[in-house]
Amino acid sequence: MSLKHAVLIVLQFEDGTGYEIAKWFDQGMGYFWHASHQQVYLELGKMAQAGLVTFTAVEQIGKPAKKIYHLTDQGLAELKGWMLKPAKQFALKDELLMKVYSGHLIPPQDLLDQILKHQTDYRELLNKFKQIEEQWFQDVENLPLPHQYSYLTLRNGIGYAKAWLEWCDEVITFLKGQIGKQPSI
Amino acid sequence: MSLKHAVLIVLQFEDGTGYEIAKWFDQGMGYFWHASHQQVYLELGKMAQAGLVTFTAVEQIGKPAKKIYHLTDQGLAELKGWMLKPAKQFALKDELLMKVYSGHLIPPQDLLDQILKHQTDYRELLNKFKQIEEQWFQDVENLPLPHQYSYLTLRNGIGYAKAWLEWCDEVITFLKGQIGKQPSI
DNA sequence: AGCTACATGTAAGGAGTTACATGATTAT
DNA sequence: ATAATCATGTAACTCCTTACATGTAGCT
Q1: What's the pTM?
Q2: Smallest CA–CA separation between B107 and chain A, in Å?
Q3: Of chain B residues 64-123, which have a beta carbon within 7 Å of strand D?
Q4: Do the beta carbons of residue A152 and residue B103 sit within 8 Å?
Q5: Mean pLDDT throughout B19-35?
Q6: Å between A184 CA and D16 C1'?
Q7: Dist. CA B25–CA B34, nearest whole Å
Q8: What is the DSSP secondary-structure string of A81-140?
Q9: What is the Cα–Cα distance from B150 to A174, expressed in whole angstroms?
């Protein structure tokens, strides 16, 4: 159950509403942990009951009232305790790999179309990551420590996207060969 | 709901029992799709009801009776239909990245221990993949087509493991620097 | 008139994990 | 003796997705 810990991590950086926390999981942090706003609101409710977080209700003019959540000592202790426990092993769930695995079932052109689409997505992701790197992490060693750690996860994203791009190239080359061999489908 | 399609893929390769199908998800195919035996048995039950698979009950001497499942035409049609639909976007869920992201919360040595452990795991994975490559895919172009496709997924695994290994090196270098800076924790 | 951002949630259902339950055979 | 392999499943629970539900402000 790591959504809890993901939320604790966000709140350890700064207090925020459920809405704001959900945005973290849609943007930057979403690269390695995603959650919908529904999940976040539910989880925050449970966490408040468990005493890991508390909130301050804030009335607003012209906007819905909001709850600003913040970490309790107990929440921080829970987070630190979790940090020290060994992380779960990698576990991919990737539909594209499944489709390639049984790629012989459909015409190579159809699979190629899908791979090309995914390659475009990975290329865009890589460009986005690289742009963030250039814009914010030129002088990494002089940034605050938490930023230096978050930079490491960005580096992971860059390596990950590159590896996928290269693999897509391999698959594309193979599929083009297949299409050349059987042009009459 | 892709467990269904993963099971269809396995059965499209060869008929098998729930036990045997579950092994695929623990071994080779487990690299990109994992499922427990409990999940598999449940799913097979649903799939049989839906007419995607049928089974032959086989009594055995000295072993429990078993059900050998096989694809129906409807099952194959479902699989091919799914193959043609666009695959879901990549979505990681990685605890290790979460821990690095908030690495400043614990002493660098503790994080380093975890990274080293994971690097060892990825190194073993890479070695396993490379060994499979050498043993079975020396002469890829002359293998049956399905094997050529499965080789592509192995290539993905190799690229993936390499990318993680390199990233682990980056993190290790950084953490050793951190440990050097604050030797008094 | 329609879209995006802000801001909160409930409900139903599907997917996945962990624990429980059984029992023979073969290898160490 | 103990563990692994073969072989099946149920039950409880947690986790995640999709759909529903509401309402203002500002931009195009």
Answers
A1: 0.93
A2: 9
A3: 64-67, 91, 93
A4: yes
A5: 96
A6: 43
A7: 5
A8: HHHHSPPPPP----HHHHHHHTGGGS-HHHHHHHHHHHHHHHHHHHHHHHHHHHHH-TTG
A9: 12
**pLDDT of amino acid B61:** 78
In three-state secondary structure terms, B120 is helix
Residues in chain A closer than 8 A to B71 (CB atoms): none
Would you say B98 and B140 are in contact if contact means Cβ atoms under 8 Å apart?
A: no
Of A83, A98, A156, the CB nearest to B32: A98
- Burial per residue of B112-141, b for 16 or more beta-carbon CB atoms within 10 angstroms, e otherwise: bebbeebbeebeebbeebeeebeeebeeee
Mean pLDDT, chain A, rounded, equals 95
Who contacts A120 (Cβ-Cβ below 8 Å, separation ≥6)? none
Going by C-alpha positions, the residue among A110, A104, A92 that lies closest to residue A164 is A92
| pLDDT tens per residue, range A63-100 | 888 999 999 999 999 999 999 999 998 889 999 999 99
